[in-house]
């Protein structure tokens, strides 16, 4: 009898202190990636320190989104945010140096962008809503975007974004309100401004959790959820699946 094939897990790093949003994110990441809890482990950085991460133990690293902004004034950041960002910048810096598989979702643009010297600021915020994403010529060639149309809808919502990239980064996608919706550094480090893990139920959960976090007027929460339900978000989860398929490594 053959032994079942075993693969190294993926590591999800979460910056969501709110249980409802953090758990929904973890479940969605696993579901769309096609992984169970053994295939995707999670560290909630708001609850525990990152510790030593040996890339040899993992197939890849995924960073989820959340209420942090790397461009916030340092004096406005909580001690937890400062600790988390210090840990993440160090880890992602190593990932870039080693070209280790990394996918940053939303907040990942700020972290990966800061590591490589991109301009990360509040020039191109987008409301919590469906956005129209257009792949660049380079994006159309990317393995992570295989089988995606040139133009597709995705859920987003952010205060900061990358407004300019250094020459060693490749812009992969844009939207009408945000010129850098996705980019790549090296061969294996990616970031998307939109959320590849979000479907309608997920974005409605986020709207409920974060309605007092300054993304939108709290009284507009129900109308935002109604608008979200009018969209069929089909393609973004494919990016998670492609990331896992491309980088899954045998033990």
UniProtKB/TrEMBL annotation:
It is an enzyme of class 6 (ligase). Residues 55-198 form the Glutamine amidotransferase domain. One of its GO terms (molecular function) is transferase activity. It comes from the Bacteria. This is Glutamine amidotransferase. The keyword Transferase applies. Its EC number is 6.3.5.2. Transmembrane segments: none annotated. GO terms for cellular component: cytosol. InterPro entries: ChyE-like, Class_I_gatase-like, GATASE. SUPFAM superfamilies: Class I glutamine amidotransferase-like. Keywords: Glutamine amidotransferase, Ligase, Transferase.
């Amino acid at each position: 009898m053959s032994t079942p094939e075993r693969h190294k897990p993926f590591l999800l790093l979460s910056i969501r202190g709110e249980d409802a949003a953090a758990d929904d994110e973890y479940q969605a990441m696993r579901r769309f990636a096609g992984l169970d809890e053994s295939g995707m482990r999670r560290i909630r950085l708001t609850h525990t320190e990152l510790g030593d991460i040996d890339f040899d133990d993992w197939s890849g690293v995924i960073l989820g989104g959340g209420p942090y902004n790397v461009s916030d004034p340092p004096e406005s950041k909580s001690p937890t945010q400062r600790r988390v960002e210090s840990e993440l910048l160090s880890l992602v810096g190593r990932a870039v140096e080693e070209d280790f598989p990394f996918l940053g979702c939303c907040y990942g643009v700020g972290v990966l962008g800061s590591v490589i010297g991109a301009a990360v600021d509040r020039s191109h915020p987008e409301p919590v809503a469906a956005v129209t994403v257009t792949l660049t010529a380079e994006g159309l060639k990317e393995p992570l975007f295989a089988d995606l149309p040139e133009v597709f809808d995705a859920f987003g919502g952010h205060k900061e974004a990358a407004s300019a990239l250094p020459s060693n980064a490749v812009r992969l996608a844009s939207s009408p309100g945000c010129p850098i919706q996705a980019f790549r550094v090296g061969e294996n480090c990616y970031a998307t401004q939109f959320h590849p893990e979000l479907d309608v139920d997920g974005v409605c959960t986020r709207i409920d959790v974060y309605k007092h976090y300054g993304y939108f007027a709290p009284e507009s929460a129900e109308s935002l959820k109604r608008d979200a339900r009018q969209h069929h978000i089909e393609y973004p989860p494919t990016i998670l699946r492609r990331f896992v398929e491309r980088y899954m490594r045998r033990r």
